[in-house]
C-alpha cells in the first residue's frame, strides 16, 4: 500500500460510474483526479467524503487485481450515505485510505474456504471472492453462502449467477422469505452451513453481515467443528479517524479501524456477544 | 423392508435410535415420490404421515387469503418435513410443496404414535429428535422475525 502523505487529508476522486444495485443501494466507481489509485487488500475500507455533508467508512467492494478505480457499494441509510448514493458520474468526492486489516486470502491457501455473507455484507467479501476465484487452484473446496431478506434484495445478482455457473464453486443463495415463484432456498444463511461440504479441520471461514447473523453463523461454524482461530469476520463500528486515534470505533481493547475490520473470531469471541460493548 | 431399515438407519434423524427401534419404525415406513409442484401436506390436514427427504427440495409455505403463498423455509436432502404429527391436535400448520422431484420416506404417524405410547424409550428418542429440529427452527425463525437485514 502506498504511504499516505497525511491520513487526515482526503484525496480528490471523481465518480466515473454509478450502478444502481437495489432500490436503496448503489455501487460507485471512483478514480483519483491525479496520480495512481493506491493498492488495497480484500476487506479494507476507505473513508469517503461527501463534500459539505461528512465522511463515512465504506468497504472496498471491487477487484483488487484491477487498477485505476476504487469500487464502493453504498446503502442509503444516513446523511452521508444518502449524499454518496446521490453522486452522479462526473461528481467529485473525497477519499482517505485504504485502511484496516484484510481477509486472510493468502493464509487460506491450501484449505477449504467457506464464505458466509448476509445482505450488504457481500460487498466487503467480494474482493476476497474475486481473488480466490482468480487463483482458484490455490484453494480446496470453495463455498459461498449468501443470505438476504427476499429475492428483490439480492446484491450483485448477475455476478452471483455467473459464479454459480462455475463447476469449481459451491454457491448457495437463501432468502428469509419469498413468494412461490422463487425456486431457490428460503431460510436463514447459518442454516446452509450444515448442508455445505468442507473439512472442518482444514477450513478458513470468512463471515460478514449483520452482527446477529454473524453470531448465529459463528455458532453453526463452531458446531460444524471449525476452529475459532480460522473463522474471520468483518466488524462494523462508527469509524471517524480511521487510524486508531479517536476511539470512536473502540470494541473492547481493539479499535475496529486499525485492528479490524477483519478479525479472527478467537480475538473477539469473549466480547462479541456482550451487550455493553 | 430391509431396504427401508437401512435407509432409516443411515438418516441423521434416526442416528441415536437402536436397531430394534429402527426395525419397529420400518414397519410404519414407505417410499414416496413427489413431482415438482406436488404437495406433501397442506395446512389444516390431519398430520397422519411425516417425511424424511431423501433427495429433492421442499418449500414450506404459509398462505394468507387472497395473497400469494409465502415460502419461509426450504428443506433438502436428509431433512425432515413435519413435526405436528407428534403434538395434538395432529394437524399440519403450513403447506409443504415439492419444488423439484423429491424422493422421501413417509412414516405413518398414527402407527408411530401408537408405538411411542407403548414403548416409552422409543417415544423419548423420538421426542429428542423432533425437539432438536424444533429448537433449530425456532432459532432460525427468531432470526427471520427480527429482520436482521432491515435498514437499521
What does this entry look like structurally?
The complex is a heterodimer of chains A (277) and B (152). In chain A, 19% of the residues lie in helices and 31% in strands. Chain A has 277 residues and is α/β, with parallel strands linked by helices. Chain A folds into two domains: 11-99, Translation factors (Elongation Factor Tu (Ef-tu), domain 3, Beta Barrel); 112-272, Nucleotide-binding domain of ferredoxin-NADP reductase (FNR) module (Rossmann fold), CATH 3.40.50.80. In chain A, the strands form three sheets. Chain A has a seven-stranded mixed sheet, sandwiched between helices. In chain A, strands 4-3-6-1-2-5 form a six-stranded antiparallel sheet. The longest helix of chain A is centred in the middle third of the chain and has 13 residues, at 122-134. The two termini of chain A are 31 Å apart. The mean pLDDT of chain A is 92. In chain B, the strands form two sheets. Chain B has a four-stranded antiparallel sheet with strand order 1-8-3-6. A four-stranded antiparallel sheet of chain B has the order 2-7-4-5, with no helix packed on it. Chain B has one domain (28-145): Jelly Rolls. In chain B, helix 1 (2-10) packs across helix 2 (19-26) and helix 3 packs across helix 4. Chain B is an alpha+beta fold. Helix content of chain B is 35%, strand content 28%. Chain B is globular and about 50 Å long. Chain B is built from four helices and eight strands, in the order ααββββββββαα. Chain B has helices spanning 2-10, 19-26, 109-118, 120-145, and strands at 29-34, 39-41, 49-55, 57-62, 70-76, 80-81, 95-98, 102-108. Classes of the chains: A alpha/beta (277), B alpha+beta (152).
Oligomer: heterodimer
Count of discrete domains of chain B: 1
Work out the helicity level of chain A: 10-25%
Beta content of chain A: 25-35%
Largest sheet of chain B: 4 strands, antiparallel
The low-pLDDT segments of chain A are none
Q: In the CATH hierarchy, what is the class of the largest domain in chain A?
A: Alpha Beta
Instruction: Give the CATH H-level superfamily of chain B.
Output: Jelly Rolls
Helix count of chain B, per DSSP? 4
Distance between the termini of chain A: 31 Å
What is the number of beta strands of chain A? Answer: 16
In order across it, which strands form the biggest sheet of chain A? Answer: 11-9-8-7-12-13-16
Largest interface: A-B, 32 and 25 residues
What is CATH's topology name of the largest domain in chain A? Rossmann fold
Mean pLDDT across every amino acid position of chain B: 91
Given as residue ranges, the uncertain stretches of chain B (5+ residues, pLDDT < 50) are none
Amino acid at each position: 500500500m502506498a504511504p499516505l502523505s497525511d491520513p487526515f487529508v482526503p484525496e480528490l476522486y471523481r465518480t466515473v460510474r454509478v450502478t444502481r444495485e437495489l432500490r436503496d443501494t448503489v455501487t460507485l466507481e471512483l478514480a483519483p483526479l491525479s496520480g495512481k489509485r493506491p493498492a488495497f487488500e480484500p476487506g479494507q475500507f476507505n473513508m469517503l467524503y461527501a463534500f459539505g455533508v461528512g465522511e463515512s467508512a465504506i468497504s472496498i467492494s471491487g477487484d483488487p487485481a484491477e487498477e485505476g478505480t476504487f469500487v464502493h457499494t453504498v446503502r442509503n441509510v444516513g446523511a452521508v450515505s444518502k449524499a454518496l448514493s446521490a453522486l452522479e458520474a462526473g461528481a467529485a468526492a473525497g477519499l482517505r485510505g485504504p485502511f484496516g486489516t484484510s481477509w486472510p486470502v493468502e493464509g487460506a491457501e491450501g484449505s477449504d474456504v467457506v464464505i458466509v455473507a448476509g445482505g450488504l455484507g457481500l460487498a466487503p467479501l467480494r474482493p476476497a471472492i474475486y481473488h480466490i476465484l482468480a487463483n482458484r487452484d490455490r484453494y480446496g473446496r470453495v463455498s459461498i453462502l449468501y443470505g438476504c431478506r427476499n429475492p428483490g434484495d439480492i446484491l450483485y445478482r448477475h455476478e452471483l449467477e455467473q459464479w454459480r455457473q462455475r463447476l469449481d464453486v459451491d454457491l448457495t443463495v437463501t432468502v428469509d422469505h419469498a413468494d412461490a415463484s422463487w425456486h431457490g432456498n428460503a431460510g436463514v444463511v447459518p442454516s446452509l452451513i450444515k448442508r455445505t461440504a468442507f473439512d472442518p479441520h482444514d477450513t478458513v471461514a470468512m463471515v460478514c453481515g449483520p452482527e446477529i447473523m454473524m453470531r448465529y453463523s459463528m455458532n453453526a461454524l463452531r458446531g460444524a467443528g471449525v476452529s475459532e482461530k480460522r473463522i474471520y469476520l468483518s466488524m462494523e463500528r462508527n469509524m471517524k479517524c480511521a487510524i486508531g486515534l479517536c476511539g470512536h470505533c473502540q470494541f473492547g481493547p481493539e479499535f475496529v479501524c486499525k485492528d479490524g475490520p477483519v478479525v479472527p473470531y478467537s480475538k473477539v469471541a469473549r466480547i462479541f456477544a456482550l451487550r455493553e460493548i | 423392508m430391509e431396504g427401508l431399515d437401512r435407509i432409516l438407519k443411515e438418516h441423521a434423524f434416526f442416528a441415536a435410535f437402536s436397531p430394534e427401534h429402527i426395525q419397529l419404525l420400518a414397519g410404519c415406513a414407505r417410499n414416496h415420490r413427489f413431482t415438482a409442484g406436488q404437495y406433501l401436506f397442506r395446512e389444516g390436514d390431519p398430520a397422519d404421515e411425516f417425511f424424511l427427504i431423501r433427495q429433492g427440495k421442499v418449500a414450506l409455505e404459509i398462505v394468507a387469503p387472497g395473497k400469494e403463498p409465502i415460502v419461509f423455509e426450504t428443506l433438502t436432502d436428509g431433512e425432515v418435513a413435519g413435526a405436528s404429527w407428534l403434538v395434538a391436535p395432529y394437524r399440519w400448520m403450513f403447506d409443504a410443496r415439492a419444488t423439484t422431484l423429491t424422493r422421501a420416506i413417509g412414516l405413518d404417524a398414527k402407527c408411530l404414535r401408537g408405538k411411542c405410547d407403548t414403548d416409552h424409550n422409543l417415544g423419548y428418542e423420538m421426542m429428542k429428535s423432533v425437539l432438536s429440529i424444533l429448537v433449530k427452527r425456532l432459532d432460525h425463525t427468531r432470526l427471520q422475525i427480527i429482520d436482521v437485514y432491515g435498514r437499521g
